[in-house]
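Box 3.1 A note on notation
Throughout this textbook, protein chains are presented in two layers. The first layer is the amino acid sequence; the second is a token string describing backbone geometry. Keep the layers aligned when reading.
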Amino acid sequence: MAESRGTPGSRQAIMRSAADLFAELGYRNASLRAIAADAGCDPALIGHYFSSKEALYDAVVAETVRPAEVFREAVGRRDPDAAEWLLRHAVTDWGDPVQRRRILGVLRSALDLPAARERLSQSLVPEGVAGADEVRLALISSLLVGVMTSRHMGLLPPELTKDGDSTELVRALAPAVAAFLAAGPAGGACPDSGE
């Protein structure tokens, strides 16, 4: 029997089920009823914790992708290790098959539906970031999405991800990310970079 009142684990169960079903079916095809059934709760409980399917998706994106805080700190750092620091934090979840599947599900949903794409885009650039920093983060996000997709498709050289270790991948990507962190919209130094 489906749970009609929330328990301490209900919200997390809904989030896990939503993340899994968005990954498996895409945003459009993952119904609230299916999410509730998978979570073992009444569909009305989703409305209790989340006002809509869109709000549930936003919560899944925020928990699954989590780039905003990492990007904000990386842009604020002006040291030579900022790129490697950002990459280590950004690719941490990629080694976990469940988390990787969920991240790919978020990306799949973003390809499937313009509204989901907009929500993902908003989550990738922290609030209050604009100008050259926004361009930097958009470029870094694009690079990471491409690398993750390539990794999932088996297109990356195996030595970059041997045994689930991302050390070599981080080293290989660091120069490109460092260039994005230092470059402005036209590829030159940003006005605020001190160069």
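The longest helix spans residues 131-152. DSSP finds ten helices and no strands in the chain.
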